[in-house]
Design a protein that fits this description.
It is built from 17 helices and 21 strands. By secondary structure, it is an alpha/beta fold. Bound molecules: alpha-D-glucopyranose (GLC) and calcium ion (CA). Alpha-D-glucopyranose (GLC) binds next to loops.
Length: 558
């Protein structure tokens, strides 16, 4: 594998609205991030992806951009952004911005002009169609519910939006649109960004025709996943984007790519792929249902293990996945993947080590390093997120009681990850001196940074050790480039793998169960191994046998 500057890095995602508020308006901002750069440095972070801070009416929390060249005033100014990039650089941290170009906001100038004249120049920046024989062009369901077609007020035109109606899709078939996007990207990259995280990118290529697909719910509509499986030719756009933007800047790029088609992995994330890396979402989509959240099944530790290993196998020899246990669209990883009885500090460290040491680029989502947990929402009024609102409606339509519906929402809501960062046990968890835009998780008195800093055995200190381990020169080569070789795959409750490098191997072995378990790994000699990390004081090995205590994880060389 050709070496790249970003391979050995550790990345961190900031959800700016909920990270740190510098001026007491209850909303996190760029100055707030700036104040925490030393914190990120202390943790050992090299790359920081910041979710959108561009000018936006915030229908989908900034993923609806009204002007790509402006910073939204709630977050600060362009000067703040320039300073942030500069201050981060001084600390050896690269800033990665969110690139949201499948769609823009319906308040973007392009869309306004387009609506005024759908057949004019700007009309071609989007998808405008009329009904035929009283029918919409097709029955596709937007990700946030309802038809993808929305009427243009006072006209007989409809425009396409695969996400919210305030997020009209940009027409990538129009070369002018692509040029303007690349210009904008280069303008940002010239400011010294380390790169971009590319939002929802698989949606930019639609099937050749707007046609109906077999409905998969009673609404008569069809899921976008099915529709996109029918689209081909996205590579032409992505190759062009890479050559005109990322390549000349040697920028890092990570794609939000769900279900790349079989055999396409190298195209997306290989040495000469469209992107540096793509996120591994296999475990996040495991158990999901076309019926919506209420039909979903929570993955078990066995599912989790299988998903991780499948992804590791398929990517071997191709490139590096970006590994996560959560992000701003997912529930908190510790609340989702750990069985109820394992949701304690020991279990959180177990999950941390198991995912973090997989081959790939590890991403930590803000608060994950403290073991922040899901929120409990009692009523839909407490939830801000538009997709949760929609899924609540889906639950109600399916006949669930309010209580049952709220259980579903509490489990999957994107707001679980969007509650403010828990800096301390002080009011509002130290996030703001004002009223936070979204309620703080009431567990902030127990789970917060200030407290964990004082405890050598905290989840936070464990994350620091993991990051440190990955950067230790003796192990770095193996932890970054070494093959992943799963062991004891059939052993229920156990997830274990070797990372195999040049003349070195590192074993990561964890027990998801509560009971101690004796495992045997042929060829191991536990007395000769060097323990690099564990979440338990004792590592009880003897010959080729090891007793893993309930929820114990060990990392050893040997
Ligand atoms: C991506 C983002 C998500 C957003 C959507 C539409 O999936 O991660 O937060 O709602 O794209 O931009
Ligand atoms: Ca603020």
């Amino acid at each position: 594998m050709r070496k790249e500057w970003w391979h050995g890095k550790v990345a961190y995602q900031i959800y700016p609205k909920s990270f740190s508020d510098s001026n007491g308006d209850g909303i996190g901002d760029l100055k707030g991030i700036m104040e925490k750069l030393d914190y990120l440095k202390e943790l050992g972070i090299d790359l920081v992806w910041i979710s959108p801070v561009y000018l936006s009416p915030c229908a989908d929390q900034g993923y609806d951009i009204a002007d790509y060249y402006k910073i939204d005033p709630v977050f600060g100014t362009m000067e703040d952004m320039d300073r942030l990039i500069e201050e981060a650089k001084k600390r050896g941290i690269g800033i990665v911005m969110d690139l949201v170009v499948n769609h823009c906001s319906d308040e973007h100038e392009w869309f306004r002009k387009a609506c005024a004249d759908p057949e004019g120049e700007y009309g071609k920046y989007f998808y405008f169609e009329k009904k035929k024989d009283g029918e919409l062009p097709c029955n596709w369901r937007s990700y946030f519910g309802g038809s993808v077609w929305e009427p243009v007020p006072n006209s007989d035109w409809y425009y396409l939006h695969v996400f919210h109606k305030k997020q009209p899709d940009l027409n990538w078939e129009n070369p002018m649109v692509r040029e303007r996007i690349y210009d904008m990207m280069n303008w940002w990259l010239d400011k010294g960004l380390a790169g971009f995280r590319i939002d929802a990118i698989i949606n930019i290529k639609k099937p050749d025709q707007f046609r109906n697909y077999p409905p998969d719910r009673e609404d008569g509509l069809c899921d976008m996943g099915t529709v996109l499986a029918d689209a081909s030719g996205i590579g032409e756009f992505l190759r062009e984007m890479r050559d005109k933007t990322f390549r000349p800047h040697k920028a890092f790029s990570v794609g939000e790519v769900f279900n790349a088609k079989d055999g396409e992995l190298a195209d997306f994330a290989g040495e000469d792929g469209y992107f540096s890396s793509i996120f591994d979402f296999r475990q996040t989509v495991e158990g999901k249902s076309v019926d919506g959240w209420y039909g979903a099944r929570t993955p078990t530790p066995e599912d989790y293990k299988r998903c991780c290993f499948e992804s590791q196998r398929e990517m071997e020899g191709i490139g590096l996945y970006s590994n996560i246990i959560e992000n701003h669209d997912e529930p908190r990883g510790v609340s989702y993947y750990l069985p109820q009885e394992a949701r304690n500090d020991k279990g959180k460290k177990l999950l941390a080590a198991l995912y973090f040491l997989l081959k790939g680029l590890p991403f930590i989502y803000q608060g994950q390093e403290l073991g922040m947990e899901n929120m409990v929402f009692d009523s839909i009024e407490q939830v801000d997120d538009i997709s949760s609102q929609e899924e609540y409606q889906v639950c109600m339509n399916a006949g669930l009681s309010k209580k049952e519906a709220m259980d579903v929402i509490s489990r999957y809501s994107r707001d679980n990850a969007r509650t403010p960062f828990q800096w301390s046990g002080e009011e509002n968890a130290g996030f703001t001196s004002g009223k936070p835009w979204l309620n703080v998780n009431p567990n902030y008195k127990e789970i917060n940074l200030k407290r964990q800093r004082k405890e050598p055995d905290s989840v936070f200190e464990f994350y620091k050790k993991l990051i440190c381990l990955r950067k230790t020169s003796t192990y770095q080569e193996t932890l970054v480039y070494g093959r992943t070789e799963p062991v004891l795959e059939e052993e229920p409750g156990i997830m274990a793998y070797f990372r195999v490098g040049q003349g070195q191997r590192i074993l990561v072995a964890g027990n998801f169960g509560q009971e101690a378990k004796r495992i045997r790994i042929a060829g191991m000699d536990w007395e000769k191994c060097q323990v690099l990390l564990s979440n338990d004081k004792v590592v009880d090995g003897n010959g080729d046998k090891l007793v893993l205590q309930g929820l114990q994880v060990v990392v050893v060389e040997g």
